[in-house]
Amino acid sequence: MATWSALGFQNASSPLMEELIFFHDHTMTILILITTIISFNMVSTYINYNMDKIMIESQPLELFWTIIPTFVLIFIGMPSIRLLYMLDEVYEPLITIKVMGHQWYWSYEYSDFINIEFDSYMTQLNSESNINQFRLLDVDNRTVIPFNSQIRTLISAADVLHSWTVPSFGVKVDAIPGRLNQVNFISNRPGIFFGQCSEICGANHSFMPISIESVSPTQFIKWIKTMSLL
């Protein structure tokens, strides 16, 4: 999860997020290189400035600053296009979860199983029993998924615009009333991963967190059996 003074991304918990972080680092390397070269040239020109040696025209220089940006755009554009195709690719899901945004909580339904649906509200920090929980992030009913399994989420909203966002998975999908959006992701390690609504949806916008617990397939089956009895 995010912490104070963190300057980078959260640790990747899915192959998609790993690719997003790689693309970010790749692009930032190019931008830093360009910024360094331009800054050096500007400082060098300022220090060595001479009115008698003003460059009025230079064909090689014009050729240089026409060709080099072309290659820079190619180096940035090709990985970007590859990543866009990866984001839109649809895989065969193992589990489908329906997510519905409300003011101000999320409701979940495991459509592959019978009678497994619940609401997920933010946990209030008002007693010593939950002093070890994370403020504004923990919920009373976590969404449980098996790791190393393809998960499909169908996302919509019941009232206003919301946004279902889990940074560790590289997932951010708008929840729009009357429209069904779909996203696929896979968790490559067990753990608890937090997210929040990323759309300003009203007065309590910051009080509808997302908490996903990634467990082993055996633990997931036990959880399914427990939820089926409730």
Description:
The protein has 230 residues and is α+β, with helices and mostly antiparallel strands. It is 33% helix and 26% strand. It folds into 2 domains: 15-88, Helix Hairpins; 95-229, Immunoglobulin-like. It contains 3 helices and 10 strands, in the order H-H-E-E-E-E-E-E-E-E-E-E-H. The chain is elongated. Keywords: Copper, Electron transport, Magnesium, Membrane, Metal-binding, Mitochondrion, Mitochondrion inner membrane, Respiratory chain, Translocase, Transmembrane, Transmembrane helix, Transport. Residues 92-226 form the Cytochrome oxidase subunit II copper A binding domain.
> What is the CATH superfamily of the largest domain?
Cupredoxins -  blue copper proteins
Report the top-level CATH class of the largest domain.
Mainly Beta
What sequence of helices (H) and strands (E) makes up the elements?
HHEEEEEEEEEEH
Strand order within the widest beta sheet: 3-2-1-5-8
CA-atom Rg in angstroms: 24 Å
Q: What is the number of strand segments?
A: 10
Overall pLDDT metric: 85
Low-confidence stretches: none
Please tell me the total number of domains.
2
Share in β-strands: 25-35%
Family: Belongs to the cytochrome c oxidase subunit 2 family.
GO molecular function: copper ion binding; cytochrome-c oxidase activity
Domain Cytochrome oxidase subunit II copper A binding: 92-226
InterPro entries: CcO_II, CcO_II-like_C, CcO_II_C, Copper_CuA, Cupredoxin, Cyt_c_oxidase_su2_TM_dom, Cyt_c_oxidase_su2_TM_sf
